[in-house]
Specification:
InterPro entries: Amino_oxidase, FAD/NAD-bd_sf, Zeta_carotene_desat/Oxidored. The chain has about 450 residues and is of the alpha/beta class. Helix content is about 35%, strand content about 25%. The strands form five sheets. Strands 8-7-16-17-18-15-19 form a seven-stranded mixed sheet, sandwiched between helices. The longest helix is centred in the last third of the chain and has 23 residues. The relative contact order is 0.18. Bound molecules: flavin-adenine dinucleotide (FAD). Flavin-adenine dinucleotide binds next to helix 1, strand 11, strand 15, strand 19 and helix 14.
């Protein structure tokens, strides 16, 4: 860490991608960020978990070809672009008991199979929205200008109301369930650019996981793991620091930390809990943002379960298992099972129960009788997948207006520009740029205090 830095001391709450991006942006602008996370390791929903002798990522791990801010961050930590392994989209769906494959290496044939029989009205609508995302990059993120106008013009209908059943079942639902945990009647047209952005992208991953990246980041930026932020310190409308707790029970230690500003980089419900004592209206707006639970199990087997052609399966709405896929192109013996969507919401977070259910569902389509399971790791997030809100750009504008009432506070998270890792970076950079500008003008000297 650079002890010579003299810029503003900014406390960042949350060590997931939103907080990491916020702290990185502040650091490279010359400020002194300190990052707090209640977990001992960084990464939040992308944190590493042990599986046998290796680490795996149970949450977000696929990086789009268009994830430019994230890739720039990776390079800045000394990890070359060549470290990425192409993952592609290879997904087969179970439809009427048959397995149908979409593969980005045979795009035309896959697309034909996917869109065959979709009514012309829906095709025209889909193409128009896809054109928006190509016309302006901002349309791939929340509050993109064309999607905002469309929401205002149409009354922001649900995607179930806007698209017919065939397109919904084949394309819209699998994308929503994966990214937002929402069913088509729970997601809105004005936010659909974020899903189209994902559908039109190609994907890579870092086969070595995120640990080398996070280690390099922690060497540059001060981080405090295992430290829960319990409150904001606010005096006369200005945020002046925070209250923290480390340890548990009799050994718990409470502290007060001073800061020139605080960035809250948490999922909206956790951010609401922190701001509620100081701004009830802001907390209320944050609680309007919807999240859905998701459980993920990664199982190791003694042999590849998937072949080269079929690397992932998506399941129909009545199945609590939404998706099962090979962990990586060269990790086809590791299977990642995802449970999201309506049928999965009340499942117990019990790994034996979940793996039993998952293997039964997958075993109906692939031969699991000849492989032996050798390991297992599981996670469940109650606020796992962000599904935003209806007229979400209005919700965001109201959040911004409320935040402005508390000097020295910035909020960021997956509800600001979208749930993709790149969107977390975009939101965090935008919000911390604005915070830095405010701190600079507060100092009255045209430079950071
Ligand atoms: C199963 C799953 C698969 C996904 N797949 C992909 C993918 O392939 N590609 C992609 O781009 N995106 C993916 N995503 C989305 C992406 O992973 C998330 O949107 C992103 O990780 C969210 O980061 P965040 O920093 O906003 O929140 P989080 O990662 O939730 O970080 C918040 C952090 O705050 C900490 N915290 C909470 N409260 C406190 C407190 N009071 N004090 C201190 N610390 C606190 C938590 O411990 C946590 O580390 C996926 C998400 C999930 C769940």
């Amino acid at each position: 860490m650079d002890a010579e830095r003299s810029g503003a001391r900014v406390a960042v709450v949350g060590g997931g991608w939103s907080g990491i991006a916020a702290a990185w942006n502040l650091h490279r602008a010359g400020a002194r960020p300190v990052l707090f996370d209640e977990q001992p390791v960084l990464g939040g929903r992308s944190a590493a978990a042990p599986l046998g002798s290796r680490e795996v990522t149970l949450g977000g791990k696929n990086i789009g070809r268009t994830h430019l801010l994230f890739r720039e961050f990776v390079r800045a930590q000394g990890i070359p672009e060549s470290a990425f392994e192409h993952f592609g989209i290879n997904s087969s769906r179970v439809e009427d008991g048959r397995v149908r494959t979409v593969d980005t290496t045979s795009k035309a044939a896959s697309l034909y199979g996917l869109l065959r029989g979709v009514p012309p009205r829906d095709l025209v609508r889909l193409l128009r929205l896809a054109r928006y995302t190509r016309r302006a990059r901002a349309n791939r993120f929340l509050a993109g200008p064309d999607f905002q106008r469309l929401a205002d013009r149409t009354g922001d209908p649900s995607l179930a109301a806007y698209f017919g059943k065939r397109l919904r079942d084949r394309l819209i639902r699998p994308a929503l369930i994966r990214m937002n945990g929402a069913e088509p009647d729970e997601a809105y047209l004005g936010n659909f650019g974020t899903n189209l952005g994902m559908l039109l992208d190609g994907f890579d991953q870092l086969p070595g996981g995120f640990t080398p990246l996070l280690t390099a980041f922690s060497a540059a930026v001060e981080t405090r793991g295992g430290t829960r932020v319990t409150g904001l310190r606010v005096a006369e409308g200005r945020v002046t620091g925070l209250f923290t707790t480390t340890g548990e029970g009799a050994g718990a230690e409470e502290r007060e930390e001073s800061a020139d500003a605080v960035v809250v980089a948490l999922p909206a419900p956790a951010a609401a809990a922190l701001v509620a004592p100081h701004h009830a209206g802001l907390a209320e707006r944050l609680r309007e943002v919807r999240y859905f639970p998701v459980s993920v199990v990664i199982a190791a087997y003694d042999r590849p379960v998937f072949d080269e052609r079929v690397r992932a399966l998506t399941f129909p709405p009545e199945s609590p298992l939404s998706n099962a896929g090979a962990y990586g192109v060269s990790d086809r013996h590791l299977v990642r099972y995802t449970f999201s969507g309506r049928a999965a919401r009340d499942l117990p977070a019990d790994e034996e129960y979940l793996i039993g259910l998952a293997e039964k569902e997958l075993g109906a389509h692939l031969d699991l009788g000849s492989v032996r399971r050798t390991g297992l790791v599981c996670a469940r997030w109650e606020h796992g997948l962000c599904a935003y809100s209806r007229f979400h750009s209005r919700t965001l504008a109201e959040i911004d207006a409320a935040v402005a009432a508390l000097d020295g506070l910035a909020l960021t998270g997956d509800y600001v520009r979208g749930a993709a890792i790149e969107a977390c970076f975009r939101g965090a950079y935008e919000r911390t740029d604005a915070l830095l500008a405010a701190l600079t003008s507060r100092s009255g000297r045209g430079q950071l205090p």
